[in-house]
């Protein structure tokens, strides 16, 4: 079975798509074709969206589903005239919240992922620059780091650092364990002062060899033997030094990031 | 007025926080203290969450609000015993969807931001590596690029590329316009074959000078005159070459990314 989903928003559509995706993963027998219609902030844009929905309805013969985060009720009404099944994301929560808080909500559109708080936004961008300049041992001055990821090459450190920086404004550096570090089985001296901010990433040897092979085909670096040795030594080092760590093989960067922040007690707001 | 919000999930908590944040921005007279409790996937974890909620309720005297994306109804019931105002994110949508689709949802937890589709996940990570290796003119081979951002130094190209890569699996390169390009007022030859994939970023001169000053204090690069000249020339070049562009000064990377993907007709699913 195939069905069509439209994510419609007066802003970026990120909220609509996030919740829509979460709900739809609970219906995995159905194949969903998804379309994003962002910045629907006028009657004209809403009418254009209705036309797209109606066209697809006619083409497929199946009623489309609209996940709607448009805040202006007049625009939502226009969207509903498409005949789609409307899933209004905010509607169920507004009344209970208004009652609980004793204030009326404000109809300000596109705020959730807009540039509302400039200082917070700047912190994200600065954290992203920090992650880029403190990636892969490029800069060993970790005084400002909120977290320093430690692991062998290609264990997932860089994307995880970028994710935590972009979405939590966390200054995340990463240090790649070298063969020398792994032979000594000692925490590199430059990391010792920051022990409380260290977090280790590991990965299955087969997966690591596969990733490295794609990057440097036929290299010693990509052999299973080399990957196994590095990972064994790294695991030993992290255990001995009592550094928290996790295996990234079956874990998304969102899950890794979430676990690291919990583990280190970093309770920053997500953007 | 201050109120406490708990984002509680059996996975990362990203969906809960995304929708909670969107709803709460509509109540901007209230100050919200937010706490994230991810990976609540057992009665034990749910009981621990209840204890935290009750403790805060007792301390503040104000009823906490729980934004809940835990899928197992038994765990949600435990959470509700905290006495908090429960906002169950999925509840309102499940029944209408089950009726529309004619199938029952499956109670599989933590899927929304977990590692479900390995090929999709790999595409995101590869796109992130692509953005890093094609950043700031580091590599001019744009054959595989889905989009190439063009603009003066510090106009917002790098964070936007990383965002599009991480969340849409889009291969985003960026090319910094040099003084030479800006003097010639010609599209650099290496970009000509990829004209349809170009997108320009601009920024207000005052803001650019401020950002550059933070990076290279007292440099010619950071003077308002230099920023104005570069931006004027870049705007002229982009207009003359008919390349779509936007001003990033008051625009978040989520908004910039969303507009670029719409403009270039890239309809990839968001992760």
Automatic annotation (TrEMBL), chains A, B:
<dbReference type="GO" id="GO:0005524">
    <property type="term" value="F:ATP binding"/>
</dbReference>
<dbReference type="InterPro" id="IPR026530">
    <property type="entry name" value="PSRP"/>
</dbReference>
<keyword id="KW-0418">Kinase</keyword>
<dbReference type="InterPro" id="IPR005177">
    <property type="entry name" value="Kinase-pyrophosphorylase"/>
</dbReference>
<feature type="binding site">
    <location>
        <begin position="151"/>
        <end position="158"/>
    </location>
    <ligand>
        <name>ADP</name>
    </ligand>
</feature>
<keyword id="KW-0808">Transferase</keyword>
<protein>
    <recommendedName>
        <fullName>Putative phosphoenolpyruvate synthase regulatory protein</fullName>
        <ecNumber>2.7.11.33</ecNumber>
        <ecNumber>2.7.4.28</ecNumber>
    </recommendedName>
</protein>
<comment type="similarity">
    <text>Belongs to the pyruvate, phosphate/water dikinase regulatory protein family. PSRP subfamily.</text>
</comment>
<dbReference type="GO" id="GO:0043531">
    <property type="term" value="F:ADP binding"/>
</dbReference>
<dbReference type="GO" id="GO:0004674">
    <property type="term" value="F:protein serine/threonine kinase activity"/>
</dbReference>
<comment type="function">
    <text>Bifunctional serine/threonine kinase and phosphorylase involved in the regulation of the phosphoenolpyruvate synthase (PEPS) by catalyzing its phosphorylation/dephosphorylation.</text>
</comment>
<dbReference type="Pfam" id="PF03618">
    <property type="entry name" value="Kinase-PPPase"/>
</dbReference>
<keyword id="KW-0723">Serine/threonine-protein kinase</keyword>
<dbReference type="GO" id="GO:0016776">
    <property type="term" value="F:phosphotransferase activity, phosphate group as acceptor"/>
</dbReference>
<keyword id="KW-0547">Nucleotide-binding</keyword>
